[in-house]
Amino acid sequence: xxxxxxxxxxxxKRTGExxxxxxxxxxxxxxxxxxxxxxxxxxxxxYFSYDVKMKEKGDIPEGYSVSREKKERFSLILESASTxxxxxxxxxxxxxxxxxxxxxxxxxxxTVT
Amino acid sequence: GQQVMQIPQYQHVQEGEDFTTYCNSSTTLSNIQxxxxxxxxxxxxxxxxxxxxxxxxQKRLTFQFGEAKKNSSLHITATQTTDxxxxxxxxxxSSYKLIFGSGTRLLVRP
Lengths: 113, 110
Known about the structure:
Structural class of chain B: mainly beta
Strand content of chain A: over 45%
Number of helices of chain B: 0
Helix content of chain B: under 10%
Order of helices and strands of chain B: EEEEEEEEEEE
Structural class of chain A: mainly beta
Mean pLDDT of chain A: 94
Shape of chain A: globular
Order of helices and strands of chain A: EEEEEEEEEEEE
Largest interface: A-B, 18 and 24 residues
Radius of gyration of chain B: 13 Å
Strand content of chain B: over 45%
Number of strands of chain A: 12
Helix content of chain A: under 10%
Number of helices of chain A: 0
Mean pLDDT of chain B: 95
Largest sheet of chain B: 6 strands, mixed
Distance between the termini of chain A: 37 Å
Oligomer: heterodimer
C-alpha cells in the first residue's frame, strides 16, 4: 500500500520565518504534488513535479518554492512565512500516468503567528 | 481559469436518507475522480470516470459522468454514519491538470 509521509502534523511558526515542509513517498511514484486546503476553497495546487529536479507552478505558487532532489522526497518551502499562509498543507503522489489517482499524506496544519 | 463547481457545500441528513453531490465544469473534462475525506483525515481516492455517460457503483455509492463530460454526481443510497466526511470531485482537463471542487461536507444524524 502506498504511504505518503509528511514530517509534521502540526507546526507553529512566526511571521518572516523560513519554513520547510517535507514529504516522502515509498512507492517509487514519479509525480508529486503540494496542495493547500482551506475551508470552502477545496484543494488548491501550489507546485508539482513529474520527475527529479523538475518542478512546475500550480495555481497559487506565490510565496512558495519547492525542491525535489530525490525521487521519493518533495519539499515545500515558505521563504518568509506570512499569516495568510496559515493552512492545511497536503502532499500527494501518483504514478507516471497522468490519469493516475492521487495518494495523499496526512497533512501538516501550519499556523503562522 | 477553469473551475469545477461543487454543490451543495453542506448536507445534513438523517441516517437512512439518500445524499447527492454535484460537480459542474466550465469546460470538457478528460476524466473525473472522486475522493472522500473523513473528519481529521486526508482525501482518499474512491473512483475515476473516463467515458461519456459512464455510471459506476460501489455498494451504496453511485457515480455518474455526464454525456458532455462537463458534470458528474455522487449519490449515496440509505446513508450510514460511516459515510460522514467531505466528498471532493476532481476534474482533469486536457492538459492533465486536476482541478478540485470545493467539496461537500456530509453530516449524518444517527
